[in-house]
């Protein structure tokens, strides 16, 4: 009978080595898995985290393992490439840091076998990801097991899957469930016994079969396919957050009346449609997908998460009221997919084919997609396979890129006829780009109001796309802006304040959630995450677009804006709890609630009652001394404090490491450009275009210099489309964002640019 033995404890670890030991080293560091060597340097800024080869070694004593014919080493995540050695003999190589893979170590498993796993996250041109706005952590950061099985067993070799595939098909009140078991080394006297149980453990279907159902193409010589269908009468549907009902299917390999191997999987029965006009439809019911994206890291742990971390993440996502999660930009832990099934989250699952298309990386995109589908096929929560993310950031016309998307799209449909495909498109990609028509659905990453443009551009942009391509379902796969513990009563784009983030999301909620045709919307991001190349916002090494901080200890105000729209759990929240000291005589207080009416009290006296259909309530509050605020909405209450000060509290103000100019430092000649002029206005004249071209040339030199020293520029390359997207930025705003790509400006450089701009006339208003 199959047994799984966890071997996370007591691995010897050595950083930055390629030497494969033949005996267990006594001077290496001892670590327990999950483990990454980038848990600190991967999110401290500087784009200098260690990327190379590190070795893990462990003695496996055969006497301590269950007696079995066959032993597999199971690695659930080793980033990003790895080699396995047993007693000095190389057993396997694997490329791709986010999936499960196994190695048959039976022949080399001596009484005391030395297992060495050499893990490598160094840059290369073959394995994705290589360029992206997040840290590529190295390590054995998920569970490692030994699987002991009989000679005949459910297959363990095919792309890390279970060897057991369940495909339900709903027909009116019933479901027809196809059960496919793949048996390695099956013998004539062996049968496969199938059982389907409901959530209460009652058997709803049961049958056995001994012979092959068919001679399926592509099977290895030692693999037999047992394939049949079973009915579930009056099927209980899996219906997202409302009713995430799960069945359990069990496959038993029986020899002479004895079960010699067994596997099980949960599954759900549901139908869905992604309609270009009506959005997502689940089991015949319109079911709006409004949710978040998630990265798999946190402060102090990197990507080496424990189960309790996954549990906490899911609790927070459920609290905000999300109905969908985009699991970006790679395969996540199987435990988290299980949580998605249990909680009813509708999932977008994707591979890390991101930012920079590599002509030498095609095979890796194919293998990672095969692993993603095979390992996750049975999860009812998954509805789309994601082909790529922002892959045209350096251009959309590459024939090899287009062909690769066609190959991946066809592969998804060949391997899984039950699900659709999608992809996330970078904002500056033209609407009519050829590759956009390849998948079944599309989504766009737009940051109007943060990286250029204004918040009110988001909805109209989607209206234009929808009008142009009325039969292609479209969604918003990324939108967001950064916020740290900075505050201002007059927030502005680019100030990294919690107040601007809240305002931004208020506007985006009203625009996106009221457009039914958007099949899904995903906030970027649910949590702040590690991005070591970033140097902005006052805290390097992280992307701070999360609704929750990277340590999961603080829910930013924007979190509650979504909770007000999406959650049915009654609550009221006063914004600005970290913004206590305020200079203005009358201050604006924003309150979020899913209740119809809110009353605000200041030092016990009512400021008034307000109703708001959009769930956002605004009060003007006299700011006199210390004021205790209390908001009441139905049975819910929240409180905070504000305090009157004479001068602005500078602890609330971001001071960038890049040069900061005061308003009085910037000379503005009437009728001429300055650092406060937008890129679009500067480029409205020939002289302005020449200035921008020269500036872009200089910036490219700096970025190439950074890349030559091995620093990651986050995948950004200056091009026509990127400049177009940034058209609403002032030059000063663009300079403040230089930290994203490792570029810093001195005060002298900025003043010199301003002097040059002061000689360029503003374009005449039409």
The portion of residues forming beta strands comes to 25-35%
Q: How many strands in all?
A: 43
> Can you name the CATH architecture of the largest domain?
Alpha-Beta Barrel
- The name of the CATH superfamily of the largest domain reads Glycosidases
- Total of helices: 12
Give the tally of structural domains. 5
Structural class: alpha+beta
Q: Radius of gyration over alpha carbons?
A: 28 Å
User: What is the first-to-last residue Cα distance?
Assistant: 80 Å
Report the average pLDDT across residues.
93
Reported by name, the CATH topology of the largest domain is TIM Barrel
* Amount of helix: 10-25%
Main β-sheet description: 8 strands, parallel, barrel
Q: Supply the CATH class of the largest domain.
A: Alpha Beta
Q: Mind explaining what this structure looks like?
A:
The protein has 766 residues and is α+β, with helices and mostly antiparallel strands. It folds into five domains: 3-149, Jelly Rolls (Sandwich); 164-267, Sandwich (Immunoglobulin-like), CATH 2.60.40.10; 272-569, TIM Barrel, CATH 3.20.20.80; 586-652, Immunoglobulin-like (Sandwich), CATH 2.60.40.10; 663-757, no CATH class. Helices cover 19% and strands 31% of the residues. It contains twelve helices and 43 strands. The strands form eleven sheets. It has an eight-stranded parallel beta barrel, surrounded by four helices. β19 and β20 form a beta hairpin. α1 packs parallel to α2 (334-343) and α3 packs parallel to α4 (399-415). The chain is globular, with a radius of gyration of 28 Å. The relative contact order is 0.09. Mean pLDDT is 93; it is low at 709-713.
């Amino acid at each position: 009978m199959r047994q799984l033995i966890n071997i996370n404890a007591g691995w010897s670890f050595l950083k930055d080595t390629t030497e494969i030991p033949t005996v267990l080293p006594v001077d290496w560091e001892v670590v327990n898995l999950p483990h990454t060597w980038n848990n600190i340097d991967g999110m401290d800024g500087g784009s200098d985290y260690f990327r190379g080869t590190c070795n893990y070694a462990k003695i496996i004593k055969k006497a301590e393992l269950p007696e079995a014919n066959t032993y597999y080493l199971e690695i659930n995540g080793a980033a990003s490439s790895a080699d396995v050695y047993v007693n000095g003999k190389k057993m396997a190589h694997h490329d791709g840091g986010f999936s499960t893979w196994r190695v048959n170590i039976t022949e080399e498993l001596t009484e005391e076998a030395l297992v060495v796993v050499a893990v490598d996250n160094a840059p290369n041109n073959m394995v994705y990801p290589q360029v992206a706005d997040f840290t590529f952590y190295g390590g054995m950061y998920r569970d490692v097991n030994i699987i002991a099985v009989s000679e005949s067993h459910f297959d363990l070799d095919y792309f890390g899957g279970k060897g057991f595939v369940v495909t339900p098909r709903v027909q009116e009140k019933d479901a027809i469930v196809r059960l496919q078991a793949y048996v390695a080394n099956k013998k004539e006297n062996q049968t496969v016994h199938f059982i389907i149980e409901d959530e209460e453990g009652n058997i709803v279907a049961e049958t056995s079969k001994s012979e092959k159902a068919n001679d399926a193409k592509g099977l290895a010589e030692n693999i037999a396919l047992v394939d049949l269908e079973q009915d579930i009468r009056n099927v209980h549907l899996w219906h997202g957050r409302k009713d995430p009902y799960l069945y359990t299917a069990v496959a038993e390999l029986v020899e002479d009346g004895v079960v010699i191997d067994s596997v099980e999987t949960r599954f759900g029965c549901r139908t869905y449609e992604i309609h270009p006009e009506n959005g997502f439809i689940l089991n015949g019911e319109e079911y709006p997908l409004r949710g978040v994206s998630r990265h798999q890291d946190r402060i102090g742990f990197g990507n080496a998460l424990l189960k309790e971390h996954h549990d906490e993440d899911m609790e927070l996502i459920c609290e905000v009221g999300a109905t969908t999660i985009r699991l970006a930009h790679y395969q996540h832990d199987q435990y988290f997919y299980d949580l998605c099934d249990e909680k009813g989250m509708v999932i977008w699952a994707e591979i890390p084919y991101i930012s920079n298309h590599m002509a030498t990386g095609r095979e890796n995109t194919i293998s990672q997609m095969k692993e993603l589908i095979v390992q996750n096929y049975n999860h009812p929560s998954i509805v789309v396979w994601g082909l790529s993310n922002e892959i045209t950031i350096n251009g959309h016309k590459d024939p090899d890129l287009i062909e690769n998307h066609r190959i991946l799209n066809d592969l998804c449909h060949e391997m899984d006829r039950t699900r659709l495909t999608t992809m996330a498109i970078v904002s500056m990609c033209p609407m009519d780009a050829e590759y956009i028509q390849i998948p079944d659905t599309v989504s766009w990453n737009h940051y109007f109001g943060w990286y250029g443009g204004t918040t009110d551009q988001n909805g109209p942009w989607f209206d234009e796309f929808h009008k142009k391509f009325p039969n292609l379902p479209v969604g918003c796969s990324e939108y967001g802006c950064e916020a740290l513990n900075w505050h201002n009563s007059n927030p502005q784009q680019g100030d990294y304040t919690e107040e601007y983030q809240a305002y931004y999301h208020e506007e985006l909620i009203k625009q996106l959630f009221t457009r039914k045709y958007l099949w899904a919307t995903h906030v970027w991001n649910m949590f702040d995450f590690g991005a070591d190349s970033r140097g902005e916002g006052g805290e390097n090494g992280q992307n701070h677009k999360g609704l929750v901080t990277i340590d999961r200890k603080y829910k930013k105000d924007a979190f509650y804006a979504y909770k007000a729209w999406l959650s049915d759990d009654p609550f009221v929240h006063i914004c600005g709890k970290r913004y206590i000291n305020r200079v203005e005589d009358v201050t604006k207080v924003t309150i979020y609630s899913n209740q119809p009416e809110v009353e605000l009290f200041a030092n016990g006296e009512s400021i008034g009652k307000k109703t708001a259909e959009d769930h956002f309530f605004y009060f003007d509050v006299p700011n006199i001394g210390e004021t205790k605020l209390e908001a009441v909405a139905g049975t819910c209450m929240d409180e905070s404090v504000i305090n009157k000060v004479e001068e602005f509290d500078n602890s609330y103000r971001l001071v960038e490491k890049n040069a900061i100019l005061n308003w009085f430092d910037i000379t503005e000649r009437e009728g001429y450009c300055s650092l406060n002029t937008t890129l679009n206005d500067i480029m409205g004249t020939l002289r302005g275009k020449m200035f921008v071209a020269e500036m872009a040339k200089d910036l490219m030199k700096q970025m190439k210099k950074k890349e030559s020293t091995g620093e990651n520029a986050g995948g950004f390359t200056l091009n026509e489309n990127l400049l177009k997207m940034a058209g609403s930025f002032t030059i000063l705003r663009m300079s403040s964002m230089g930290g994203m790509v490792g570029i810093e400006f001195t005060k002298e450089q900025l003043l010199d640019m301003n002097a040059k701009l002061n000689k360029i006339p503003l374009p005449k208003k039409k």
